[in-house]
Amino acid sequence: MQKDLESILFDEEQIQQRIQELGKQLAVEYNEKNPLFICVLKGAVLFMADLIKRVDVPLEIDFMATSSYGDASKSSGVVRILKDLDRPVEGRHVVIVEDIVDSGLTLRYLRETLLHRKAASVKIVSLFDKPEGRQVDIEPDWFGFRVPNAFIVGYGLDYAERYRNLPYVGILKAEIYQES
Ligand code: 5GP
Ligand code: MG
Ligand code: MG
Prior knowledge:
By secondary structure, this protein is α/β, with parallel strands linked by helices. It has a domain at 18-68 and 76-149: Rossmann fold. The protein is 24% helix and 29% strand. The strands form 2 sheets. A 6-stranded mixed β-sheet has the order 4-3-2-5-6-7. It has a 3-stranded antiparallel β-sheet with strand order 1-9-8. α2 (45-52) links the parallel β2 and β3 (60-67). α1 packs across α2. It is globular. The model has no long low-confidence stretch (mean pLDDT 94). The protein binds guanosine-5'-monophosphate (5GP) and magnesium ion (MG) (2 copies). The site of one magnesium ion has 3 residues, from loops. One of its GO terms (cellular component) is cytosol. It catalyses: GMP + diphosphate = guanine + 5-phospho-alpha-D-ribose 1-diphosphate; IMP + diphosphate = hypoxanthine + 5-phospho-alpha-D-ribose 1-diphosphate. Pathway: Purine metabolism; GMP biosynthesis via salvage pathway; GMP from guanine: step 1/1; Purine metabolism; IMP biosynthesis via salvage pathway; IMP from hypoxanthine: step 1/1. GO terms for molecular function: guanine phosphoribosyltransferase activity; hypoxanthine phosphoribosyltransferase activity; magnesium ion binding; nucleotide binding.
């Protein structure tokens, strides 16, 4: 285990197993709809890559980057688009692929934005759900795992841009964010 972690919540095998199950559910839902899977950079990049391999129907992908956290471990409540989609979503069945739903502010903003652009439907798949963090009324349509109200890293999720490359997910030691 990486030395800055307090504990591991989900190992590589558990994550891959769960993603396989999610992929099957999404394939049923999106059969013959040519969905557009939108990865929310950068946290969801590992999840996106593993998930789409398990969704066995024709689909397209695009990427979007938002900012609400900076390098801190608390939400600022302000969502900005740092990188927008390459192509219009009008008439498309969209699946937003997120790493984690915490306050829900990012997803509420993204969902409203895509609906405003006239997507045919907008659904959300998130690998992690942290229900105790919620500030607005939004739920993922599918999620991999519920997590406690702690700051987690690994498998795409960072602290100050680090730990994204860990193949597992764990709770970061409090002393790591107290240092900086
Ligand atoms: P929101 O609070 O808007 O639901 O979450 C916004 C983003 O904050 C998430 O997509 C994720 O990138 C980041 N975030 C929320 N909770 C955590 C966490 O426990 N660990 C890490 N590394 N990022 C988080
Ligand atoms: Mg995210
Ligand atoms: Mg982050």
